């Protein structure tokens, strides 16, 4: 007699800008620089792009690309436990700096028995403790290789995989025996479209212009949270 498996409903979330009100990678990087693990010149990778973004002369994506570049450049040779310690410090300090809408949605879905899946472009070393602390069942993040001496090599494992979030969701569905029936997805940029297209209820939360335009075209839910107000434009 074949064993019958009950498929759990899935809810998939991006993290940075969707739940966390900033970038986990940025906070980790800034702390590594402040602690002297990374040199201060690492800021040169993104300082100019950051000012341009603040002055609305450049995009957030350009700024974030500089942050990613700095992290990838200086992570090589750093011991894994140093990054883990710093990641937990960042999480402890910032764990409550989340959006109310997505925080409450996660809690509600958890009570309803949903399988909570997090997919983020930030390093797994910071995304995992942050998402696990919120009750997520499975976490995907950018994975950096560690050698036998437990130092980062600077190489990204499965490079490019994290940029195809729809494929990650499909893999999780098959591996964890989940169902897309009544599924929910929440993201904030066009990089999340690939998994939002797969769920029954896609939500564009504080979307960038590309995601906003796509969501309007597809008549997806759009939610904006500003200060103490949450509304649908």
Please tag this protein with its features.
alpha/beta, HAD-like_sf, 233 residues, 9 helices, phosphoserine phosphatase, Rossmann fold, 23% strand, amino-acid biosynthesis, L-phosphoserine phosphatase activity, 41% helix
Structure in words:
By secondary structure, the chain is of the alpha/beta class. It has one domain: Rossmann fold (3-Layer(aba) Sandwich), CATH 3.40.50. The chain is 41% helix and 23% strand. It contains nine helices and eight strands. Strands 4-3-2-1-5-6-7-8 form an eight-stranded mixed β-sheet, sandwiched between helices. Helix 9 links the parallel strand 6 and strand 7. Helix 1 packs across helix 4, helix 2 packs antiparallel against helix 3 and helix 4 runs parallel beside helix 6. The longest helix has 15 residues. It is globular, with a radius of gyration of 18 Å. The N and C termini lie far apart (53 Å). The mean pLDDT is 93. It catalyses: O-phospho-D-serine + H2O = D-serine + phosphate; O-phospho-L-serine + H2O = L-serine + phosphate. Its EC number is 3.1.3.3. One of its GO terms (biological process) is L-serine biosynthetic process. It holds the Pfam family HAD.
């Amino acid at each position: 007699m074949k064993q019958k498996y009950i498929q759990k409903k899935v809810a998939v979330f991006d993290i940075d800008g969707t739940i966390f009100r900033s970038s986990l990678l940025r906070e980790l990087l800034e702390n590594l620089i402040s602690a002297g693990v990374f040199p201060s010149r690492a800021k040169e990778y993104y300082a100019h792009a950051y000012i341009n973004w603040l002055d609305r002369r450049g995009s957030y994506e350009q700024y974030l690309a500089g942050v990613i570049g700095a992290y990838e450049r200086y992570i090589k040779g750093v011991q894994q436990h140093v990054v883990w310690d710093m990641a937990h410090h960042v999480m402890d300090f910032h764990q409550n700096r989340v959006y109310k809408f997505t925080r409450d949605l996660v809690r509600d879905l958890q009570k309803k028995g949903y399988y909570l899946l997090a997919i983020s472009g930030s390093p797994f070393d910071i995304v995992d403790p942050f998402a696990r602390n919120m009750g997520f069942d499975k976490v995907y993040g950018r994975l950096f290789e560690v050698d036998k001496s437990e130092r980062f090599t600077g190489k990204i494992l499965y490079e490019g995989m994290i940029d195809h979030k729809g494929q990650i969701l499909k893999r999780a569905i098959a591996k964890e025996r989940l169902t897309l029936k009544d599924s929910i997805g929440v993201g904030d940029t066009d990089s999340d479209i690939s998994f939002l297209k797969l769920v029954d209820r896609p939500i564009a939360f504080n979307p960038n212009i590309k995601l906003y335009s796509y969501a309007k075209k597809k008549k997806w839910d759009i939610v904006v949270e500003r200060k103490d107000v949450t509304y649908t434009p």
